[in-house]
Amino acid sequence: MKEKINQLIEQATQRIKESQDVNSINDLKVQYLGKAGEITALLKGMKDVPNEQKPEIGKYVNKARDTITDLIQAKMNELQQKAMNAKMMKEQIDITYDEKDATRGSLHPCTLVIDEVLDIFTGMGFTVANGPEIEMDKFNFQLLNIPKDHPSRDMQDTFYAGEDLLLRTQTSAVQARTMINTKPPIKLVCPGKVYRPDYDATHSPMFQQIEGLVVDKHVTLCDLKGLLELFAQKLFNEKTKVRFRPSYFPFTEPSVEVDVTCSVCHGVGCRICKGTGWIEILGAGVVNPKVLDSCGIDSTKYSGLAFGLGVERIAMIKYGIPDIRILFENDSRFLKSFK
Ligand code: DAH
Predict the structure, then answer these.
(1) Quick one: DSSP state of residue 37?
(2) Nearest CA to ligand 1 atom 8
(3) pLDDT averaged over the chain?
(4) Atom of ligand 1 at shortest distance to CA of 283?
(5) Pseudo-torsion of CA 288, 289, 292, 294, nearest 10°?
(6) Cβ neighbours around 12 below 10 Å, total
(7) What is the pLDDT of residues 157-209, one digit of tens each?
(8) CA-to-CA distance for 40 and 8, rounded, in angstroms?
(9) pLDDT of the residue at 101
(10) Ligand 1: which residue has its CA nearest to atom 12?
(11) At what angle do helices 221-235 and 109-123 cross, to 10 degrees?
C-alpha cells in the first residue's frame, strides 16, 4: 500500500512540475483530489485495510493528500503570477513616448465666452436654464408680445417645422417658458443656439445667445444698468463703462441697446470700435408688463429686467476676430491659438 502511495506521489509531483498552464493544473487537481480522484479513492479504500494497520496507513494517505494539495497550490500560484506578469508586460506604458505630435484639443472661443459669462452670472446668484432649439411659436413669439403678423417677425424669419413649430430665433423663448412655470423671484441665464436667415461677415444663420432674466418686486432700469456694468467690468476690465441707447424690442419697455467702452482703446477711438470709443454688446430692457401678465405673473406686483447677448459677437470683440465665419470654419491653426 505504502509503495503504491509513494508511486502516486512521485507520478503526481512529476506531472505537476511539467504543467505549463492553469488549465492543466486544474485537470490534475480533479484527477488526484476530485470526487473520483486517485487520492480520494485511497481514502475510500481505508475501510479494507486491516484494523491494526489503519492508523499508520491513514496517516500516510493523509500526508500524501496534503503533499499533492500543496504542490498543486504552489504551481497554481506560480502560473497565475506568470500570467499576470505577461499581461503587465503587454500593457506597459512607454513613459519615454514623445507626445509632441499627438493632437490635443482645446476649447472653442465661443465655449470660452459662454463659460466665462455663465461663471460671472452664477457668481451673482443666477441659475442656468435651458430650452429646446425646436420651439413653439407661442414661446418664441406670441408670449413675448410678438403676435402672428407682427412686423418685427420679419427680422427674425426662420425655418418652420409645421404651423406652430420653428427653429427658435432667440433664447428669449426660455424667458416665457420659465415665467409660465415658475413663481418669482426669478434670476436666470440661458445659453443656446438660435437661427436666423442672415449670412455675412457679422451674421450667421446659426449663432449662440445668452439670455438673462430677473423678475422680482421693485426691479428697475437702474438695477439693469448696475447689473450690466458689473458684468461688463468682469468680462472686459474694471475700467469698462456702460451706456444705454434707446431701442425697441416688443418684449421690453423701455428697451435699450447697451454699449461698453472699447477694451482696446479705452474709449479714445480705434479700428475695433470704428473710431467711436464704444462697442455695442447686447440688447436689454425692462420686461414689458404685457409679457409678465400673459405669462401669468401679476405685473402690478412684480417687474422684470431682461437682456440678450450674442456669444459670437462677444468672442469677436474679446479676441479681435474680424469675420464671424472664421468661428465656424474649424481651421485648426485658428483653433490652436486658444490653447
Ligand atoms: N432677443 C433679442 C434678440 O435676439 C435680444 C434681447 C433684447 C433679449 C432685449 C432680451 C431683451 O431679453 O430684453 O435680438
Answers:
(1) -
(2) 308
(3) 92
(4) 7
(5) -100
(6) 21
(7) 888 888 899 999 999 999 999 999 999 999 999 999 999 988 888 889 999 99
(8) 12
(9) 64
(10) 307
(11) 130
* Buried b or exposed e, range 317-332, using 16+ CB within 10 angstroms: beeebeebebbeeeee
Taking the CA of residue 171 as reference, the ligand 1 atom at the shortest distance is: 1
Against a cut of 0.90, is the pTM above it? no
Q: Whose CA is nearest to atom 10 of ligand 1?
A: 307
- Using CA atoms, how far apart are residues 126 and 123, in angstroms rounded to an integer? 7
Whether residue 69 contacts residue 62, with contact meaning beta carbons closer than 8 Å, is answered with no
139 ligand 1 Cβ < 6 A: no
| β pairing state of 303-310 and 206-216 | antiparallel
- For strands 134-136 and 278-287, give the pairing: unpaired
**Grid cell listed for 82:** 506568470
Q: Copy the grid coordinates of residue 101.
A: 505630435
Residue 109 contacts residue 319 (beta carbons within 8 Å): yes
Render pLDDT for 46-88 as a digit per residue (tens, 0 to 9): 888 888 988 888 888 899 899 999 999 999 999 999 989 999 9
Sign of torsion over alpha carbons 66, 72, 73, 78: positive
Angle CA 281–282–284, to nearest 5: 150
Q: Other C-beta atoms within 10 Å of 41: how many?
A: 12
Nearest to 141 by CA among 124, 126, 154, 127: 154
Angle between helices 2-18 and 22-33 (to 10 degrees): 170
Cα 172 to ligand 1 centroid, rounded to whole Å: 6
pLDDT at 284: 98
Task: State in Å, rounded, how far the first CA of the chain is from the last one.
Answer: 81
**In this structure, which amino acid lies at residue 130?**
N
Closest ligand 1 atom to Cα of 212: 12
Query: For the sheet containing 278-287, what is the strand order?
Result: 127-128, 186-195, 206-216, 303-310, 278-287, 252-261, 242-249
3 state SS of 42: helix
